[in-house]
Amino acid sequence: MRIAIAGLSLESASFLPEVLTVADFRATEVEGPTLVERYRGSNTALGGFLAVLEAEGADIVPLLYAEGGAAGCAEDAAFIHYADRIVASLAAVLPVDGVLLHLHGAFATPTRLDPDRELTERVRAIVGRSVPVILALDYHGNLDDSLSAVADGVFGYRLSPHTDQGETGERAARCMVRTVRGEIRPVTAIVKPGVMVPSIASATALRPLADLVAAAAAAGRDDGPVLDVSLFAGFSYADVPNCGFSIVAVADGDRAAAEAAARALSDRVWAARRDLLPRTLWTDLDAGVTEAMNLAVHATRPVVLLEHADRANDSTYVLRALLERGATRAAVPFLWDPEAAAQAASAGVGATVTVRAGGKSSPQAGGPVELNGEVLFAGEKSFKVSGAYSRGKHVDLGTTALLRVGGIIVSLVSIPAFGVDEDPFRIFGLDPMDFRLVVLRSKTHFRAAWETLAERIIIVDTPDWGPADLTTLPFRRVPVEQTFPFNEG
Predict the structure, then answer these.
(1) Cα–Cα distance measured from residue 84 to residue 232, given in angstroms and rounded to the nearest whole number
(2) How does DSSP classify residue 434?
(3) Percent helix, strand, coil in the chain (nearest 5)?
(4) What is the pTM of this model?
(5) N or C of the chain: less Cβ packing under 10 Å?
(6) What is the torsional sign of CA 197, 42, 417, 288?
(7) Residues 77, 79: Cα–Cα separation, whole Å
(8) Residue 208: pLDDT above 90?
(9) How far does CA 4 lie from the centroid of its chain?
(10) Are 108 and 240 spatial neighbours (Cβ–Cβ below 8 Å)?
(11) What is the pLDDT of residues 375-397, one digit of tens each?
(12) For residue 363, is the peptide bond before it cis, meaning its omega torsion is within 30 degrees of 0?
Protein backbone atom coordinates (compact mmCIF):
# COMPACT_ATOMS: atom_id res chain seq x y z
CA MET A 1 0.00 0.00 0.00
CA ARG A 2 1.82 3.06 -1.31
CA ILE A 3 0.21 6.31 -0.10
CA ALA A 4 1.38 9.86 -0.85
CA ILE A 5 0.68 12.60 1.70
CA ALA A 6 0.89 16.35 1.16
CA GLY A 7 -0.85 19.58 2.02
CA LEU A 8 -1.15 23.35 1.83
CA SER A 9 -3.12 25.31 4.41
CA LEU A 10 -4.24 28.91 4.88
CA GLU A 11 -7.33 30.48 6.47
CA SER A 12 -7.84 33.65 4.43
CA ALA A 13 -9.59 36.71 5.85
CA SER A 14 -10.29 38.42 2.53
CA PHE A 15 -10.49 41.97 3.84
CA LEU A 16 -6.99 42.11 5.33
CA PRO A 17 -4.94 44.20 2.88
CA GLU A 18 -1.62 42.34 3.18
CA VAL A 19 -1.19 39.20 1.07
CA LEU A 20 1.10 36.31 1.98
CA THR A 21 4.11 35.55 -0.19
CA VAL A 22 6.17 32.43 -0.72
CA ALA A 23 8.48 33.69 2.02
CA ASP A 24 5.62 33.66 4.54
CA PHE A 25 4.92 29.98 3.84
CA ARG A 26 8.57 29.00 3.73
CA ALA A 27 8.93 29.26 7.51
CA THR A 28 6.63 26.24 7.90
CA GLU A 29 7.62 24.29 4.79
CA VAL A 30 8.61 20.64 5.21
CA GLU A 31 9.40 18.18 2.45
CA GLY A 32 10.10 14.47 2.11
CA PRO A 33 11.23 12.57 5.21
CA THR A 34 11.33 15.81 7.24
CA LEU A 35 7.55 15.96 6.98
CA VAL A 36 7.29 12.60 8.75
CA GLU A 37 9.81 13.58 11.41
CA ARG A 38 8.09 16.91 12.10
CA TYR A 39 4.51 15.65 12.34
CA ARG A 40 4.77 12.10 13.66
CA GLY A 41 2.96 11.91 17.02
CA SER A 42 1.44 15.40 16.74
CA ASN A 43 -2.22 16.24 17.17
CA THR A 44 -2.53 17.35 13.56
CA ALA A 45 -4.21 15.91 10.49
CA LEU A 46 -0.79 14.91 9.18
CA GLY A 47 -0.03 13.25 12.51
CA GLY A 48 -3.28 11.30 12.14
CA PHE A 49 -2.40 10.22 8.60
CA LEU A 50 0.96 8.95 9.79
CA ALA A 51 -0.42 7.12 12.83
CA VAL A 52 -2.80 5.01 10.75
CA LEU A 53 -0.50 4.43 7.79
CA GLU A 54 2.45 3.40 9.97
CA ALA A 55 0.24 1.05 11.99
CA GLU A 56 -0.89 -0.55 8.71
CA GLY A 57 2.67 -0.92 7.48
CA ALA A 58 1.98 1.27 4.46
CA ASP A 59 4.71 2.62 2.22
CA ILE A 60 4.37 6.33 3.06
CA VAL A 61 5.47 8.76 0.36
CA PRO A 62 5.78 12.20 2.01
CA LEU A 63 5.70 15.02 -0.52
CA LEU A 64 5.40 18.61 0.75
CA TYR A 65 3.47 20.58 3.36
CA ALA A 66 3.35 24.32 4.09
CA GLU A 67 0.92 26.55 5.91
CA GLY A 68 0.21 30.23 6.37
CA GLY A 69 -1.92 29.96 9.50
CA ALA A 70 -4.79 32.44 9.83
CA ALA A 71 -4.05 35.57 7.85
CA GLY A 72 -5.16 37.39 4.70
CA CYS A 73 -5.17 36.06 1.18
CA ALA A 74 -2.06 34.56 -0.38
CA GLU A 75 -0.70 36.08 -3.54
CA ASP A 76 -1.44 34.00 -6.61
CA ALA A 77 2.26 33.34 -7.10
CA ALA A 78 2.50 31.71 -3.66
CA PHE A 79 -0.35 29.32 -4.34
CA ILE A 80 1.00 28.47 -7.79
CA HIS A 81 4.48 27.91 -6.38
CA TYR A 82 3.33 25.34 -3.83
CA ALA A 83 0.65 23.73 -5.99
CA ASP A 84 3.21 23.24 -8.77
CA ARG A 85 5.69 21.68 -6.37
CA ILE A 86 3.14 19.31 -4.85
CA VAL A 87 1.94 18.18 -8.26
CA ALA A 88 5.48 17.81 -9.62
CA SER A 89 6.62 15.81 -6.60
CA LEU A 90 3.57 13.56 -6.92
CA ALA A 91 4.22 12.98 -10.61
CA ALA A 92 7.82 12.03 -9.79
CA VAL A 93 6.84 9.22 -7.40
CA LEU A 94 4.04 7.55 -9.39
CA PRO A 95 2.57 5.01 -9.20
CA VAL A 96 0.81 5.39 -5.85
CA ASP A 97 -2.27 3.63 -4.50
CA GLY A 98 -3.76 6.77 -2.98
CA VAL A 99 -3.22 10.43 -2.03
CA LEU A 100 -4.05 11.96 1.35
CA LEU A 101 -4.20 15.76 1.37
CA HIS A 102 -4.44 18.06 4.37
CA LEU A 103 -5.93 21.37 3.23
CA HIS A 104 -7.73 24.08 5.17
CA GLY A 105 -10.76 24.73 3.00
CA ALA A 106 -10.70 28.54 3.36
CA PHE A 107 -7.61 29.33 1.27
CA ALA A 108 -8.08 32.30 -1.07
CA THR A 109 -5.98 34.50 -3.35
CA PRO A 110 -6.93 37.79 -5.02
CA THR A 111 -8.12 35.93 -8.14
CA ARG A 112 -8.72 32.37 -6.92
CA LEU A 113 -11.83 31.85 -4.82
CA ASP A 114 -11.37 28.10 -4.20
CA PRO A 115 -7.67 27.15 -4.44
CA ASP A 116 -8.27 24.07 -2.26
CA ARG A 117 -10.49 22.59 -4.94
CA GLU A 118 -8.07 23.68 -7.67
CA LEU A 119 -5.18 21.88 -6.00
CA THR A 120 -7.34 18.77 -5.54
CA GLU A 121 -8.30 18.93 -9.23
CA ARG A 122 -4.63 19.09 -10.21
CA VAL A 123 -3.80 16.10 -8.01
CA ARG A 124 -6.72 14.19 -9.52
CA ALA A 125 -5.47 14.98 -13.03
CA ILE A 126 -2.08 13.47 -12.16
CA VAL A 127 -3.31 10.20 -10.62
CA GLY A 128 -6.45 9.62 -12.69
CA ARG A 129 -9.88 8.44 -11.59
CA SER A 130 -8.85 4.99 -10.33
CA VAL A 131 -6.59 6.26 -7.51
CA PRO A 132 -8.42 7.52 -4.40
CA VAL A 133 -7.84 11.13 -3.33
CA ILE A 134 -9.05 11.79 0.21
CA LEU A 135 -8.99 15.08 2.11
CA ALA A 136 -8.80 16.15 5.75
CA LEU A 137 -10.06 19.73 6.14
CA ASP A 138 -10.48 22.34 8.85
CA TYR A 139 -13.92 22.72 10.46
CA HIS A 140 -13.82 26.34 9.28
CA GLY A 141 -13.41 25.39 5.62
CA ASN A 142 -15.71 26.85 2.97
CA LEU A 143 -16.74 24.24 0.42
CA ASP A 144 -19.49 23.19 -1.93
CA ASP A 145 -20.50 20.11 -3.88
CA SER A 146 -18.07 20.80 -6.72
CA LEU A 147 -15.36 19.40 -4.42
CA SER A 148 -17.08 16.01 -4.38
CA ALA A 149 -16.39 15.65 -8.12
CA VAL A 150 -12.62 15.50 -7.51
CA ALA A 151 -12.30 14.07 -3.99
CA ASP A 152 -13.43 10.56 -3.11
CA GLY A 153 -13.72 11.37 0.58
CA VAL A 154 -13.79 14.62 2.58
CA PHE A 155 -13.37 14.60 6.37
CA GLY A 156 -13.55 17.66 8.63
CA TYR A 157 -12.55 18.41 12.20
CA ARG A 158 -15.61 17.87 14.37
CA LEU A 159 -14.57 20.14 17.20
CA SER A 160 -13.64 23.75 17.76
CA PRO A 161 -11.28 24.12 19.61
CA HIS A 162 -9.75 21.71 17.10
CA THR A 163 -8.59 19.17 19.65
CA ASP A 164 -9.50 16.36 17.23
CA GLN A 165 -7.15 17.26 14.38
CA GLY A 166 -5.23 14.02 14.74
CA GLU A 167 -8.44 12.00 14.97
CA THR A 168 -9.68 13.65 11.75
CA GLY A 169 -6.51 12.63 9.96
CA GLU A 170 -7.05 9.11 11.26
CA ARG A 171 -10.64 9.05 9.93
CA ALA A 172 -9.41 10.08 6.49
CA ALA A 173 -6.53 7.60 6.54
CA ARG A 174 -8.72 4.70 7.66
CA CYS A 175 -11.04 5.47 4.76
CA MET A 176 -8.02 5.40 2.46
CA VAL A 177 -6.82 2.04 3.79
CA ARG A 178 -10.26 0.44 3.41
CA THR A 179 -10.60 1.89 -0.10
CA VAL A 180 -7.23 0.59 -1.28
CA ARG A 181 -8.10 -2.84 0.11
CA GLY A 182 -11.33 -2.86 -1.87
CA GLU A 183 -13.54 -2.97 1.23
CA ILE A 184 -15.40 0.26 0.40
CA ARG A 185 -15.94 2.64 -2.52
CA PRO A 186 -16.38 6.10 -0.99
CA VAL A 187 -18.51 8.77 -2.65
CA THR A 188 -19.11 12.22 -1.22
CA ALA A 189 -22.01 14.70 -1.19
CA ILE A 190 -21.93 18.29 0.09
CA VAL A 191 -24.98 20.40 0.93
CA LYS A 192 -25.05 24.04 2.05
CA PRO A 193 -27.84 25.39 4.27
CA GLY A 194 -27.15 29.08 3.50
CA VAL A 195 -26.04 30.06 7.01
CA MET A 196 -23.04 32.06 8.21
CA VAL A 197 -21.99 32.83 11.78
CA PRO A 198 -19.02 34.79 13.16
CA SER A 199 -16.13 32.60 14.26
CA ILE A 200 -16.76 33.46 17.91
CA ALA A 201 -20.12 31.64 17.60
CA SER A 202 -18.58 28.52 16.03
CA ALA A 203 -17.35 26.97 19.29
CA THR A 204 -18.77 23.47 19.23
CA ALA A 205 -19.59 23.41 22.96
CA LEU A 206 -22.26 26.07 22.38
CA ARG A 207 -25.86 24.87 22.08
CA PRO A 208 -27.52 24.13 19.70
CA LEU A 209 -24.33 23.76 17.66
CA ALA A 210 -23.12 21.03 20.02
CA ASP A 211 -26.25 18.99 19.24
CA LEU A 212 -25.73 19.35 15.48
CA VAL A 213 -22.09 18.31 15.75
CA ALA A 214 -23.11 15.26 17.79
CA ALA A 215 -25.70 14.38 15.17
CA ALA A 216 -23.06 14.52 12.46
CA ALA A 217 -20.74 12.25 14.42
CA ALA A 218 -23.54 9.75 15.05
CA ALA A 219 -24.70 9.61 11.44
CA GLY A 220 -21.80 7.55 10.07
CA ARG A 221 -21.22 3.80 10.48
CA ASP A 222 -18.31 1.61 9.45
CA ASP A 223 -20.75 -0.81 7.76
CA GLY A 224 -22.46 2.00 5.80
CA PRO A 225 -24.21 2.93 3.73
CA VAL A 226 -23.23 6.34 5.21
CA LEU A 227 -19.67 6.05 6.47
CA ASP A 228 -19.03 9.55 7.86
CA VAL A 229 -20.69 12.94 8.20
CA SER A 230 -18.85 16.21 8.89
CA LEU A 231 -20.36 19.53 9.84
CA PHE A 232 -18.33 22.53 8.66
CA ALA A 233 -19.13 25.93 10.19
CA GLY A 234 -17.22 27.69 7.40
CA PHE A 235 -15.03 30.75 7.66
CA SER A 236 -17.21 33.84 7.51
CA TYR A 237 -14.44 36.37 6.87
CA ALA A 238 -13.60 34.97 3.43
CA ASP A 239 -15.42 36.81 0.66
CA VAL A 240 -16.06 33.76 -1.51
CA PRO A 241 -19.24 32.31 -3.06
CA ASN A 242 -19.15 29.08 -1.01
CA CYS A 243 -18.76 30.84 2.35
CA GLY A 244 -20.65 29.44 5.33
CA PHE A 245 -21.87 26.16 6.76
CA SER A 246 -21.54 22.93 4.78
CA ILE A 247 -22.58 19.36 5.55
CA VAL A 248 -20.41 16.63 4.02
CA ALA A 249 -21.46 12.98 3.91
CA VAL A 250 -19.28 10.11 2.71
CA ALA A 251 -21.09 6.91 1.73
CA ASP A 252 -20.03 3.50 0.47
CA GLY A 253 -20.86 3.65 -3.22
CA ASP A 254 -24.28 5.23 -2.62
CA ARG A 255 -24.40 8.85 -3.70
CA ALA A 256 -28.13 9.10 -2.95
CA ALA A 257 -27.57 7.99 0.65
CA ALA A 258 -24.78 10.57 1.04
CA GLU A 259 -26.99 13.33 -0.36
CA ALA A 260 -29.90 12.38 1.91
CA ALA A 261 -27.72 12.38 5.03
CA ALA A 262 -26.15 15.73 4.17
CA ARG A 263 -29.52 17.27 3.32
CA ALA A 264 -31.13 16.10 6.56
CA LEU A 265 -28.48 17.76 8.73
CA SER A 266 -28.36 20.85 6.50
CA ASP A 267 -32.11 21.32 7.08
CA ARG A 268 -31.51 21.15 10.84
CA VAL A 269 -28.82 23.85 10.60
CA TRP A 270 -31.18 26.14 8.70
CA ALA A 271 -33.95 25.56 11.24
CA ALA A 272 -31.56 26.45 14.09
CA ARG A 273 -30.01 29.48 12.35
CA ARG A 274 -31.20 32.15 14.79
CA ASP A 275 -30.13 30.15 17.82
CA LEU A 276 -26.69 29.62 16.25
CA LEU A 277 -26.06 33.36 16.61
CA PRO A 278 -25.98 34.00 20.40
CA ARG A 279 -25.81 37.79 20.40
CA THR A 280 -25.32 37.96 24.18
CA LEU A 281 -21.98 36.15 23.91
CA TRP A 282 -19.96 39.37 23.49
CA THR A 283 -19.89 42.96 24.76
CA ASP A 284 -18.39 46.26 23.68
CA LEU A 285 -14.82 47.32 24.45
CA ASP A 286 -15.46 49.82 27.25
CA ALA A 287 -17.92 47.64 29.13
CA GLY A 288 -15.71 44.58 28.75
CA VAL A 289 -12.52 46.23 29.99
CA THR A 290 -14.37 47.85 32.89
CA GLU A 291 -15.89 44.53 33.96
CA ALA A 292 -12.55 42.72 33.64
CA MET A 293 -10.62 45.26 35.69
CA ASN A 294 -13.27 45.25 38.41
CA LEU A 295 -13.21 41.46 38.56
CA ALA A 296 -9.41 41.35 38.58
CA VAL A 297 -9.25 43.22 41.89
CA HIS A 298 -10.48 40.19 43.83
CA ALA A 299 -9.86 37.39 41.30
CA THR A 300 -7.75 34.40 42.28
CA ARG A 301 -7.14 33.42 38.65
CA PRO A 302 -6.67 35.36 35.42
CA VAL A 303 -9.61 37.19 33.88
CA VAL A 304 -9.43 36.70 30.09
CA LEU A 305 -10.23 39.58 27.76
CA LEU A 306 -10.82 38.05 24.33
CA GLU A 307 -10.26 40.47 21.44
CA HIS A 308 -11.98 38.10 19.04
CA ALA A 309 -12.32 40.42 16.02
CA ASP A 310 -8.53 40.55 15.58
CA ARG A 311 -7.66 38.58 12.44
CA ALA A 312 -3.95 39.48 12.24
CA ASN A 313 -2.83 39.18 15.87
CA ASP A 314 -2.04 42.88 16.08
CA SER A 315 -5.19 44.68 17.25
CA THR A 316 -4.44 47.30 19.89
CA TYR A 317 -7.86 48.29 21.21
CA VAL A 318 -7.68 46.31 24.44
CA LEU A 319 -3.96 46.95 25.01
CA ARG A 320 -4.49 50.70 24.62
CA ALA A 321 -7.41 50.63 27.05
CA LEU A 322 -5.37 48.73 29.64
CA LEU A 323 -2.46 51.17 29.30
CA GLU A 324 -4.76 54.17 29.66
CA ARG A 325 -6.33 52.69 32.79
CA GLY A 326 -3.03 51.74 34.40
CA ALA A 327 -3.72 48.00 34.49
CA THR A 328 -1.40 45.81 36.55
CA ARG A 329 -0.62 42.09 36.59
CA ALA A 330 -1.72 42.01 32.95
CA ALA A 331 -0.32 40.11 29.95
CA VAL A 332 -0.70 40.59 26.21
CA PRO A 333 0.89 37.57 24.51
CA PHE A 334 2.09 37.29 20.92
CA LEU A 335 1.41 40.79 19.57
CA TRP A 336 2.51 40.56 15.95
CA ASP A 337 4.85 43.33 14.82
CA PRO A 338 8.13 42.28 13.16
CA GLU A 339 9.48 45.84 13.13
CA ALA A 340 8.84 46.50 16.82
CA ALA A 341 10.04 43.01 17.80
CA ALA A 342 13.33 43.54 15.95
CA GLN A 343 13.82 47.01 17.41
CA ALA A 344 13.23 45.83 20.98
CA ALA A 345 15.29 42.66 20.55
CA SER A 346 18.23 44.59 19.15
CA ALA A 347 18.33 46.71 22.32
CA GLY A 348 18.99 43.57 24.36
CA VAL A 349 17.82 42.18 27.67
CA GLY A 350 17.81 44.78 30.43
CA ALA A 351 17.52 47.74 28.09
CA THR A 352 14.68 50.24 28.27
CA VAL A 353 13.12 50.82 24.87
CA THR A 354 10.30 52.78 23.31
CA VAL A 355 8.56 51.18 20.33
CA ARG A 356 5.36 51.83 18.43
CA ALA A 357 3.80 48.41 18.24
CA GLY A 358 0.77 46.68 16.77
CA GLY A 359 -2.21 47.97 14.86
CA LYS A 360 -0.40 48.07 11.52
CA SER A 361 -2.17 45.35 9.53
CA SER A 362 -4.98 47.70 8.49
CA PRO A 363 -6.76 50.85 9.71
CA GLN A 364 -9.27 48.57 11.47
CA ALA A 365 -6.55 47.18 13.76
CA GLY A 366 -6.51 50.24 16.00
CA GLY A 367 -3.18 51.80 15.08
CA PRO A 368 0.17 51.45 16.91
CA VAL A 369 0.50 52.05 20.63
CA GLU A 370 3.63 53.45 22.24
CA LEU A 371 5.27 50.94 24.55
CA ASN A 372 8.00 52.14 26.86
CA GLY A 373 9.45 49.36 28.92
CA GLU A 374 12.21 46.97 29.93
CA VAL A 375 13.30 44.14 27.65
CA LEU A 376 13.00 40.84 29.52
CA PHE A 377 13.77 38.52 26.60
CA ALA A 378 15.33 39.16 23.20
CA GLY A 379 16.10 36.67 20.45
CA GLU A 380 14.73 33.92 18.24
CA LYS A 381 11.97 31.83 19.76
CA SER A 382 10.24 28.62 18.74
CA PHE A 383 8.50 25.87 20.68
CA LYS A 384 6.38 22.75 20.47
CA VAL A 385 2.77 23.13 21.50
CA SER A 386 2.02 21.49 24.84
CA GLY A 387 -1.72 22.17 25.01
CA ALA A 388 -4.51 19.96 23.69
CA TYR A 389 -4.97 22.11 20.56
CA SER A 390 -2.24 21.07 18.07
CA ARG A 391 -0.19 19.28 20.74
CA GLY A 392 3.32 18.53 19.48
CA LYS A 393 3.16 21.01 16.60
CA HIS A 394 6.26 23.13 15.96
CA VAL A 395 5.64 26.91 16.19
CA ASP A 396 8.24 29.47 15.12
CA LEU A 397 7.79 33.04 16.42
CA GLY A 398 10.88 34.44 14.71
CA THR A 399 12.64 37.37 16.36
CA THR A 400 10.84 37.93 19.64
CA ALA A 401 10.98 40.43 22.48
CA LEU A 402 9.32 40.32 25.89
CA LEU A 403 8.66 43.73 27.44
CA ARG A 404 7.53 44.90 30.86
CA VAL A 405 5.51 48.06 30.25
CA GLY A 406 4.40 49.34 33.65
CA GLY A 407 2.17 46.61 35.01
CA ILE A 408 1.71 44.87 31.64
CA ILE A 409 3.87 42.14 30.07
CA VAL A 410 3.80 42.23 26.25
CA SER A 411 5.46 39.71 23.94
CA LEU A 412 6.24 41.02 20.45
CA VAL A 413 6.64 38.37 17.73
CA SER A 414 7.74 38.46 14.11
CA ILE A 415 5.66 35.51 12.86
CA PRO A 416 1.93 35.53 13.68
CA ALA A 417 0.80 32.94 16.23
CA PHE A 418 -2.28 32.62 18.39
CA GLY A 419 -1.79 32.30 22.12
CA VAL A 420 -4.39 29.77 23.17
CA ASP A 421 -2.93 27.91 26.15
CA GLU A 422 -0.14 28.24 28.74
CA ASP A 423 2.70 28.11 26.20
CA PRO A 424 2.91 31.90 25.60
CA PHE A 425 3.86 32.20 29.27
CA ARG A 426 5.80 29.01 29.96
CA ILE A 427 8.22 29.51 27.05
CA PHE A 428 9.48 32.66 28.82
CA GLY A 429 9.56 31.07 32.26
CA LEU A 430 6.35 32.81 33.32
CA ASP A 431 3.40 31.33 35.19
CA PRO A 432 0.03 32.37 33.70
CA MET A 433 -1.53 32.08 37.16
CA ASP A 434 0.59 35.04 38.30
CA PHE A 435 -1.50 37.37 36.10
CA ARG A 436 -4.96 38.77 36.73
CA LEU A 437 -5.71 40.09 33.23
CA VAL A 438 -4.80 38.16 30.08
CA VAL A 439 -5.57 39.43 26.57
CA LEU A 440 -6.15 36.69 23.98
CA ARG A 441 -6.98 36.92 20.27
CA SER A 442 -8.34 33.47 19.56
CA LYS A 443 -11.91 32.74 18.45
CA THR A 444 -12.61 29.28 19.89
CA HIS A 445 -9.29 27.49 20.43
CA PHE A 446 -8.54 29.31 23.70
CA ARG A 447 -11.44 27.45 25.29
CA ALA A 448 -9.54 24.14 25.44
CA ALA A 449 -7.23 25.59 28.12
CA TRP A 450 -8.72 28.81 29.41
CA GLU A 451 -12.22 27.65 30.27
CA THR A 452 -10.49 25.83 33.12
CA LEU A 453 -7.70 28.32 33.82
CA ALA A 454 -9.67 31.58 33.77
CA GLU A 455 -11.65 33.24 36.53
CA ARG A 456 -13.92 34.64 33.83
CA ILE A 457 -13.84 34.99 30.04
CA ILE A 458 -15.07 38.33 28.69
CA ILE A 459 -15.44 38.61 24.92
CA VAL A 460 -15.16 42.11 23.51
CA ASP A 461 -16.19 43.13 20.01
CA THR A 462 -13.93 45.66 18.27
CA PRO A 463 -13.99 47.17 14.76
CA ASP A 464 -11.35 44.84 13.29
CA TRP A 465 -11.88 42.53 10.30
CA GLY A 466 -13.42 39.68 12.32
CA PRO A 467 -16.49 41.37 13.85
CA ALA A 468 -19.45 39.64 15.45
CA ASP A 469 -21.85 41.47 13.14
CA LEU A 470 -21.15 40.01 9.71
CA THR A 471 -23.52 42.46 8.04
CA THR A 472 -20.98 45.26 8.61
CA LEU A 473 -18.47 43.67 6.22
CA PRO A 474 -18.26 44.75 2.54
CA PHE A 475 -18.92 41.37 0.93
CA ARG A 476 -18.95 41.31 -2.88
CA ARG A 477 -18.88 37.60 -3.69
CA VAL A 478 -20.90 36.00 -0.87
CA PRO A 479 -24.52 35.48 -2.06
CA VAL A 480 -25.88 37.56 0.82
CA GLU A 481 -29.41 37.70 -0.58
CA GLN A 482 -29.64 33.93 -0.03
CA THR A 483 -27.70 33.72 3.25
CA PHE A 484 -28.52 34.17 6.93
CA PRO A 485 -27.98 36.59 8.73
CA PHE A 486 -28.18 38.93 5.74
CA ASN A 487 -31.48 37.31 4.78
CA GLU A 488 -33.38 36.25 7.89
CA GLY A 489 -35.41 33.75 5.84
Answers:
(1) 28
(2) G
(3) 35, 25, 40
(4) 0.90
(5) C
(6) positive
(7) 6
(8) yes
(9) 24
(10) yes
(11) 999 999 999 999 888 788 889 99
(12) no
